Amino acid sequence: MKLLWLKIMALTIFPLVVYCSKQGIQPEDQRTNLETKQRLGSERQIYSTKEKNSTQEKVKLKAVSDEKFGFQLIKKRKITRIPFEFQANLVIVPVKVNNSDTLRFILDTGVSSIILTDANIVKQQHMKFIRNVSIAGVGEGNNIEAGIVLENTITMGDMIGYRQNLVVIKDDVLKLSEFVGRPIHGIIGYEIFNRFAVTIDFSTNELILQNPESYKYKPNKGERFPITIEENKPYLSTIELVNDNQNLPLKVILDTGAGHAISLDANQKNSIPMPEKIVKAQLGRGLSGIINGNLGRIPMLKIGKFEIKNLVASFPDSASYRIRGIDITERQGNIGCEFLRRFKVTFNYRDQYIVLKPINRRMKEPFEHNMSGIELMARGEDYHEFMVDRVIENSPAELAGLQQGDRVIFINNKSSKDVTISEIYKIFQKGEGKPINLMVKRGNEIFFTTVNLRRLI
């Protein structure tokens, strides 16, 4: 399964890793929030200057109450449930921006600002940029341009957020929709997790938002673990990498925007051993270039009473972190949704803990990687045109004669119109030695080939 790791502050997204850093926009974002607070302070004045100077011409300004700023549940609800899509190992939630139609946003614990990745929404909603900012990315190349839009209303089910500022990526450099196979319009994270006790129920695909003062932990809800919130991201330090009977303590980000099980920073200071069997891989591409690294298996992760064995882990090259101000030695990696989806997960930022309740059928599922060696992009109006983006050297896909630019039009006698990219990757992950029959279009030529699945790691 290929991984998308979109890194905006700590944003990581499935299925091919894309890194960028929001360090470049953070100062601007802080200044924007300050401007909003100053404006709200002036609006809360009961009387204008005219009122003070003339009792005959009192002009009372409408006060802006705290209820009209920030996120809350409507009708004074204490809890609400919001269905989500789980596609490409990502939690995709329904969001409306101002008066827009329902949009798809990725729920990510790592982003500090609400991000619009589809700039067309700005035009449709007649928004105006108040300033431009530059976003620095990992890899070689130039920064990208983004804009700041002030005071928007964000709606997600029975939750509403008033006067929210947005960061808008002007060009679709991330191409999230092509990776996910669904239209993706943005990313939302910290504001939700900081305001509510958030439960992600991967067994029912429901997001449960609850006012933190009404959420009470009970042992039957799962096992509780302390976390810290650093730079608006949740860190877990009660997890260990078990290798050769040695337990190596880890400090990791809990990253709902990551599709992988775990990514580890194997540098000298962290002392994390590289697996003996690894596969050189293009883990993804950042805003400023390609991200290279390795894939391998680790024996076990231990967290409390839970022992998770034989995981597929990614090991990005240290040279990939070519952004000023980023120190990857402060933590050892991050945990993504391929790990988290095996639990019902509750984040309680206010009291700084998470709750993990295992989903029994998921705990029995093995960790597998794409056994075909082919990486696809979903294109076309409905994202059912599956184009070969990359073929791994000496993989089953290369042996089957597949090349970059090929289009898969049938898979195991199913038309591409009848399957999603997530379903295709599930096929590629199951059954070592299993033949996968493909009909492929290359230019004006159509041919048949068979990919015999084989574990690469």
UniProtKB/TrEMBL annotation:
Keywords tagged on the record: Hydrolase, Protease
Protease in keyword set: yes
GO biological process: proteolysis
The organism's place on the tree of life at top rank: Bacteria
Peptidase A2 domain location: 103-184
Domain PDZ: 373-430
Name of the protein in its database record: Aspartyl protease
GO MF term set: aspartic-type endopeptidase activity
InterPro entries: PDZ (IPR001478), PDZ_6 (IPR041489), PDZ_sf (IPR036034), Peptidase_A2_cat (IPR001995), Peptidase_aspartic_dom_sf (IPR021109)
